[in-house]
Design goal:
It is built from 30 helices and 8 strands. It is mainly α and 669 residues long.
């Protein structure tokens, strides 16, 4: 049995999904966190699965999320639908409910956040609401797990009985009513052929849904008859086709809510959010406040908590490395194998693991900002700025995710309704500094800018954003000329962050980091060790030999980077291995320079100046992302040529920017 979970963004959908499945999906307090549908077994019900579909406000063909939801329900034919509705915003949420009812699938409405509604003196007549909508309704509080057991029992029962919504006309007379019935009769046979109700097909055709029209395979005469009915409706109602259907639905919703809902008074949460937003979304204070907040996060991460924990872990790793080194020496292990274990595995993987506390602390703060609802405000505030470069505030969400990892950020562009906005945002995401680059920043900052980690990190992140803005401005005037789509976003009330959600995100990032350290980075360090210790005839050479395979490759590349101030072959080689994983840049340097984590910063002072270190940081910030991100770009663009163009283009931008910075730094330093 397959149950589809559908609802508006910020309605508590992912929270309910976690309660029903025991899954550890991250719960975010801004729209767009669920990009693709997620499937998990329902706890306590064998052979039953729950599918978490993207949060949407309406089933519209020009919305990526709407298409995913609509196509899944039509094509995959789930046994039942759970439509989760925010009880504190019931009128807006019921718009999607009416569209889902038209699909004619067994369906139960989960009325969520009833505790908040009742706590502010509101109420809902559940039985009357169920009667008026023609579907079962269950009051719940997903966050507190209240009513969730009753909900899933009713859903399973509804699915087993194949109990479809009772047929209800949302309007009983008038031009819209006549138009829908006329079109329903025209498309009835065609709708049956593709397995959708005639009323659903009729409303989608009236709203000019090209995918449905194409699937129905209507004749020219039928299309002409439909268009005549639509024009007649628009003339009589004095509204265009979309507005006329929206007006029909909202009139029905208003009538239902007048009978069944007692609205709550303004809650303390709403009033508190309004007061806070006077500062955080203020025309003049919003962006400086955002920069100050992120500066504080970076300061706490790189100068106070995270760096200190990282130093302690590095000391522990160095102690373990020394102990293993001593034990292998006493055992008399073959020197080459001994070098592989200590100089390869421990130097490479160990140097990366020491940065785990920094990753955890950074995402601890980001999870808090996300859970409180602040990130929604940032997207809202950024809309005006992003429109100046040809994007909307909605593009900020994938770009924000890009600060964690480029792969899910690139996938998140699917939520953008416009193909233009989607591709343009996709090209800008690699300029957002992902968390995998943090070890690079941490090591070079410790070496050349001690006690200034927060300032350096803030400048690097702002630098990446600035280059992205310039690139976006150029793209919007050339390849992607045109205007962004209108941006509408709900700002949820500020809420106390959930300890479970914050800890879950920290664990996800930590586990992902550890997995990469013991898979991609482990393999990379072993390969690097081999290339460093063997020449082209596969003879063993000293690790610092200029005859090694790696040394020769690095020397070939050195002239390319010489104008940027770092022609040392070890630095050039580390940037190449960074294509596998950005953390591998530091592990590579540890292997090539044959030093531990603590000594790496000191060793880099011998081959870089402050000026060239700045140039290296800028290049590492901007050059092409890892192989995983590149493969995701290829999947989204569906073109090898375009993907190669993106990679080459970004490397060129990184080289040019690093060169400019190197020249400017020479004038100042």
């Amino acid at each position: 049995m397959v149950i589809a979970l559908v609802g508006n963004q910020n309605s508590g959908k992912t929270t309910l999904f976690n309660q029903l499945t025991g899954s550890n999906q991250h719960v975010g307090n801004f729209p767009g966190i669920t990009v693709e549908h997620i499937v998990s077994d329902i706890r306590g019900y064998k052979n039953s699965k729950l599918v978490d579909l993207p949060g949407i406000y309406s089933i519209r063909s020009n919305s990526g999320e709407g298409m995913v939801t609509r196509n899944y329900i039509i094509d995959e034919k789930p046994d039942a639908i759970i439509n989760i509705v925010d009880a504190t915003n019931i009128e807006r949420n019921l718009y999607l409910t009416l569209q889902l009812i038209e699909l004619g699938k067994p369906m139960v409405l989960a009325l969520n956040m009833m505790d908040e509604l009742q706590g502010n003196h509101g109420s809902v007549d559940i039985n009357l609401l169920s009667e008026r909508l023609g579907i079962p309704v269950v009051p719940i509080s997903a966050a507190k797990n209240d009513g969730v057991d009753e909900l899933i029992q009713l859903v399973i029962e509804t699915a087993n009985k194949k109990q479809k919504p009772r047929r209800i006309d949302f309007c009983s007379a008038g031009p819209v009513h006549r138009c829908i019935h006329t079109v329903s009769h025209v498309v009835e046979d065609h709708a049956e052929n593709i397995g959708v109700p005639s009323r659903f097909a009729a409303t989608r055709v009236i709203e000019a849904d090209e995918d449905i029209i194409k699937a129905l395979r209507l004749s020219d005469n039928e299309l002409e008859l439909i268009e005549h009915a639509v024009v007649e409706m628009e003339t009589e109602s004095v509204l265009d086709r979309n507005a006329a259907l929206a007006d029909m639905r909202y009139r029905f919703i208003e009538a239902v809510c007048m009978e069944t809902v007692v609205k709550s008074s303004e809650s303390k949460e709403q009033q508190r959010s309004i007061n806070i937003d006077r500062v955080l979304t203020n025309k003049y204070l919003a962006i400086p406040t955002f920069i100050a907040i992120m500066g504080f996060v970076f300061w706490m991460t790189f100068d106070v908590i995270g760096q200190r924990l990282s130093d302690w872990l590095a000391m522990g790793i160095d102690w373990i490395t020394l102990s293993v080194d001593t034990a292998l020496t006493a055992y008399g292990l073959n020197p080459t194998v001994h070098s592989l274990v200590i100089d390869g595995v421990f130097a490479g993987v160990g140097s990366i693991l020491s940065f785990l506390p920094i990753i955890i602390v950074l995402f601890f703060f980001l999870a808090i900002l996300e859970d409180t609802g602040y990130m929604s405000r940032v997207a809202f505030v950024m809309d005006k700025l992003l429109r100046k470069i040809g994007l909307s505030g909605r593009s900020f969400v994938p770009m924000l995710i890009g600060f964690g990892c480029s792969v899910p950020a690139i996938m998140a562009t699917r939520t953008l309704p416009s193909e233009r906005d989607r591709k343009m945002t996709l090209l800008l995401i690699p300029f957002m500094s992902c968390s995998a680059k943090i070890p690079i920043y941490a090591v070079l900052t410790a070496a050349f800018f001690p006690n200034k980690g927060g300032i350096v990190m803030t400048l690097l992140y702002l630098g990446g954003i600035s280059v992205g803005i310039i690139a976006a401005k150029i793209l919007s005037k050339t390849v992607f000329s045109g205007n962004p789509v209108p941006f509408v976003m709900e700002l949820p009330n500020y809420r106390m962050p959930s300890a479970k959600s914050v800890l879950m995100l920290m664990w996800e990032k930590a586990w992902d980091f550890i997995q990469r350290a013991f898979t991609i980075i482990f393999v990379a360090t072993v390969i690097l060790w081999f290339l460093q210790h063997f020449d082209v005839k596969f003879n063993v050479v000293p690790s610092d030999s200029t005859t090694s395979i790696l040394s020769i490759l690095g020397m070939w590349m050195a002239p390319v980077f010489a104008p940027l101030g770092f022609a040392d072959w070890r630095l050039c080689t580390s940037l190449v291995t960074g294509l596998m994983s950005k953390e591998a840049v530091i592990s590579t340097l540890g292997v090539l320079m044959n030093v531990g984590t603590d000594a790496l910063s000191t060793a880099l002072q011998g081959i870089l100046t402050t000026r060239s270190a700045i140039s290296f940081l800028v290049f590492a910030l901007l050059y092409t992302p890892c192989v995983a991100a590149i493969s995701t770009i290829k999947k989204e663009l569906d073109s090898t040529v375009k993907t190669v163009g993106v990679v080459v283009g970004q490397c060129c931008v990184a080289w040019l920017t690093a060169y400019i910075v190197y020249v400017l730094a020479g004038m100042i330093i």
